[in-house]
Amino acid sequence: MTKKTEETKKTKKQKQQQFLPADCTLSQLCSLWAEDIRYQVKPSSYALYITLIEKHILPYLGQYLVEELDNETLDDYIQERKNQELSWNTMRLIVFLLKGILQAGQEKGIDPAEKLHYYIPKYKRSCMRVFDQQDSERLLHYLENSDEIFETGLLISIFTGIRVGELCGLQWKDMNWGKGTFQINRTVSRIRNPEANGALGERGNAGAKADLSRTIVYIGTPKTGTSIREIPLPDFLILKLLPYKRGGECYVLTGTAKCMEPRGVQRRFKSLLRRCNIPDINIHSLRHAFASRWIENGFDSKALSEILGHSSIKITMDVYVHSNMEQKKSYMNRMI
User: Fold this and answer.
1) 202, 210, 221, 257: most buried by Cβ count inside 10 Å?
2) CATH for 14-107?
3) Please, what sign has the CA dihedral across residues 102, 105, 111, 113?
């Protein structure tokens, strides 16, 4: 074992053995937790965690002493958040963060008033609105007859179900023309700038930091391990993409070494919908629509889960597959 390794282990052990005073507030514990995990998670994840803590935890629980927290306080807090009509996923992350932060406090010698029971309220899952058949045909007609790479890029989303951040991060070197596939290796997102903002709401000091942008475009690895994947392209789309081919480091949507970010794609997508006289809809619905069409055609759900980059078929079927009324009626008639 090298001297450097020994020193690292010693420092880690000292951190684990560092005890906190009994009058430690949840706000103070959050700051310590944020410092500990900052370089253990992806920058995009860290930025999301800090934003959720600042917005949804500290204003309501930050002033509490950790040793005063009990299940009644926790239950009231969670119910209030539900009444704010936060999404199920946001609630899940808030509870996940609270549990991790308080467990970190226990490792440092400070316990809440009693053993806490963490739970996520039951939600009536909201249904993602997807295109009806008429709007879908209108959109496809427009995209297929366009000679712009952005519109052709949207066809990739429609026929493969990739996430908008993954579409933004797609480079020409990710294309395997021989196999007719492409690889998802990166994703683009806009996150808060860790150099401009302190761990929990502290702004940059006077000087250089004060001039930094509060957010930055972040290009990183995909959402999860299963999101790094190879996806086949329909033959017609390969032929449509070939004329736009650029150098390997160039991004597909821009044709340059500079990527487009998701909110820019969303703006252009909404403008395109207006041009086609199609009601406004979130671009993420293209992913849901792809999944629903796949299942409607009777294709393998395991293959769909792999194409979407999900860790399980259950996620695919529960969240991304939607049946329309025409499909249900067709099933009813076939039961006769």
Assistant:
1) 221
2) 1.10.150.130
3) negative
pLDDT, tens digit (0-9, with 9 covering 90-100), for 289-328: 898 888 888 888 899 999 999 888 887 877 666 665 666 6
Per-residue confidence (pLDDT) for residue 17, from 0 to 100? 46
What residues have CB less than 8 Å from 209, skipping those under 6 apart?
Answer: 195, 196
**Could you tell me which residues come within 8 angstroms of residue 138 by beta carbon, excluding any fewer than 6 positions away?**
276, 277, 278
236-239-245 Cα angle (round to 5): 140
Closest by CA to 189, choosing from 164, 218, 223, 220, is 218
How far apart are alpha carbons 4 and 118 in whole angstroms? Answer: 39
Structure tokens at 133: 């058949």
Spatial contact of 269 and 287, defined as CB atoms under 8 Å apart: no
pLDDT of residue 120: 85
Summarised one tens digit per residue, pLDDT across range 86-107 is 888 899 999 999 999 999 999 9
For the chain, percent of residues with pLDDT exceeding 70: 82
| Predicted local confidence at residue 128, as pLDDT | 63
For the beta carbon of residue 188, count every other beta carbon within 10 angstroms.
25
CA angle at 260 for the pair 257 and 262, rounded to the nearest 5°: 150
Residue with tokens 């076939």: 334
The H or E element containing residue 242 is none
- Options 3.10.20.310, 3.50.50.60, 3.40.50.2300, 1.10.443.10; CATH for 133-182+232-331 is 1.10.443.10
Polymer length of the chain: 336
Longest dimension (CA), the chain: 77
* CA dist., res. 12 & res. 26, Å (int): 22
Q: What is the structure's pLDDT at 71?
A: 95
- Rounded distance between C-alpha atoms, residue 118 and residue 23, angstroms: 23
Angle at Cα 87 formed by Cα 98 and Cα 163, nearest 5°?
105
Given a cut of 70, whether residue 172 has pLDDT beyond it is yes
Q: Where are the domains of the chain?
A: 14-107, 133-182+232-331
pLDDT score of 191 more than 70: yes
